[in-house]
């Protein structure tokens, strides 16, 4: 390890010299409030440098109850990653004037609360992992490197890695929203459900899918589907519980069928407060099934659906370099089930008609459509949610939305 004084001296000595002099930074530098670690230094100005900043808990100041369980740790890491990204965009988004480089980059979090690899929390410290573009003056070390490493990064750390930079209520809201969502997810099976949509959820998205649509009508469910979860934090959460079995989503054009299905599919992840889908929760093993013509098949068993087809000699080990549209979809179903999925999501817009219902096949092909397989799949513990306007499909459903 080295001191901040040595870091400054190394940068001063490298100023104006060939870019490769940055290699002298390959070290751990202990500053007043945190440690800077250079993991992989770029060879030239076109590359990127991998770095870490490590803040001891005593300096970071986050209360221990914010990361004393795995769920809270995941949610806190997610929140810190978001704040670090915002601060980096404010203080190191573009090159330092009269140089190339100077940007600090961390992957942009989406609307989902995930276990972020860019932030780590251990027993001893909070750590951010990111890349920087070291400043260059032509092919030489820039004097602005000091500004980047000791000023810009310090501001980013101050605004994201210290508890004092946050409103306490916002942090706890982020953590508790995640814990409530995970509680609902963990209790879906005990209530006989595969998905849940809370009353008041906002399902329609803006075009960029990053926020709820302005003036969207909040979701509300009918009494026959109403389920209540007594979550760990706040009031009980009520909404529509989609039961196990075969569910069909039906309705007129532009009635919101695809919006509902998109929300259910997105529900395999937890979402940040304010997203609108915080408590739209789906079985985590859900698989979205689509037709993919010309995909390959490599010894996949589709015999449960296909009893005869000129496309395959043996449907119990279907193998072909390019497959037709209906067979591609049935392959996806079989693969999803084999991987352990207990919930299949099917939209007629992205499906081959003969896979969904009867009446589209030549005599030499014998396919049992998915709508006829609802009961048998249910006996195996596999549920299905399908968008369809076909009356025969609707009649075969256990639940119609």
Explain what the structure shows:
There is one protein chain. The chain is an alpha+beta fold and 401 residues long. Among the domains are: 2-166, no CATH class; 287-400, no CATH class. Helices cover 28% and strands 23% of the residues. The chain has helices at 4-14, 57-60, 70-91, 145-160, 168-186, 257-266, 325-338, 353-356, 374-379, 391-395, and strands at 2-3, 28-30, 35-40, 49-56, 104-105, 112-113, 119-121, 125-132, 136-137, 140-141, 193-198, 226-229, 237-243, 246-249, 270-271, 280-282, 287-289, 297-300, 306-308, 318-320, 343-347, 366-367, 383-387, 399-400. Strands 1, 2, 3, 4, 5, 7 and 8 form a seven-stranded mixed sheet that branches. The protein has a five-stranded parallel sheet with strand order 17-21-23-14-24, with helices on both faces. Helix 3 crosses helix 5. The longest helix is centred in the N-terminal third of the chain and has 22 residues, at 70-91. The termini are far apart.
Instruction: State the end-to-end CA separation.
Output: 62 Å
What composes the largest sheet?
7 strands, mixed
The average pLDDT is: 93
What radius of gyration results from the CA coordinates?
A: 27 Å
What's the β-strand tally?
A: 24
Q: Per DSSP, what share of the residues sits in E-state strands of 2 or more residues?
A: 15-25%
Low-confidence stretches: none
The quaternary organization reads as: single chain
The number of helical runs is 10
Q: How would you classify the helix and strand content by structural class?
A: alpha+beta
Shape label: elongated
- Portion in helices: 25-40%
């Amino acid at each position: 390890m080295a001191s901040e004084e040595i870091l400054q001296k190394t940068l001063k000595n490298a100023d104006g010299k060939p870019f490769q002099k940055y290699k002298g930074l390959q070290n751990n530098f202990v500053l007043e409030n945190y440690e800077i670690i250079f993991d992989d230094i770029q060879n030239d100005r076109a590359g990127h440098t991998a770095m870490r900043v490590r803040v001891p808990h005593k300096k970071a100041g986050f209360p221990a109850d914010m990361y004393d369980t795995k769920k809270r740790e995941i949610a806190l890491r997610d929140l810190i990653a978001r704040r670090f990204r915002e601060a980096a965009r404010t203080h190191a988004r573009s090159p330092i004037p009269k140089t190339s480089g100077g940007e600090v980059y961390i992957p942009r979090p989406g609307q989902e609360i995930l276990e972020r690899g860019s932030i780590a929390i251990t027993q001893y410290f909070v750590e951010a992992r990111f890349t920087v573009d070291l400043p260059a003056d032509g092919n030489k070390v820039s004097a602005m490197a000091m500004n980047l490493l000791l000023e810009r990064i310090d501001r980013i750390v101050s605004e994201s890695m210290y508890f004092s930079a946050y409103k306490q209520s916002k942090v706890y809201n982020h953590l508790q929203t995640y814990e409530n969502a995970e509680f609902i997810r963990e209790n879906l099976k005990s209530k006989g459900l595969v998905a849940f949509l809370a009353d008041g959820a906002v399902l329609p998205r803006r075009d960029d899918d990053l926020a709820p649509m302005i003036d969207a009508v909040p979701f509300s469910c009918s009494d026959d589907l109403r389920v209540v979860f007594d979550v760990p934090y706040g009031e009980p959460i009520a909404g529509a519980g989609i039961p196990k079995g075969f569910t069909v989503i039906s309705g007129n054009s532009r009635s919101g069928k695809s919006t509902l299905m998109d929300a259910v599919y997105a529900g395999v992840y937890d979402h940040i407060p304010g997203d609108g889908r915080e408590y739209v929760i789906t079985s985590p093993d859900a698989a979205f099934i689509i037709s993919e013509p010309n995909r390959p098949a490599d010894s996949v068993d589709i015999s449960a659906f296909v009893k005869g087809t000129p496309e395959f000699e043996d449907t119990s080990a279907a193998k072909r370099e390019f497959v037709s549209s209906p067979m591609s979809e049935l392959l996806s179903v079989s693969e999803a089930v084999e991987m352990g999925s207990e919930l299949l999501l099917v939209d007629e817009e992205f499906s081959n008609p003969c896979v969904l219902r009867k009446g589209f096949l030549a005599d030499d092909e014998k396919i049992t459509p998915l709508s006829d397989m609802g009961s048998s799949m249910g006996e195996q513990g596999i549920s299905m949610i399908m968008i369809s306007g076909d009356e025969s499909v609707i009649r075969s459903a256990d639940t119609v939305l």
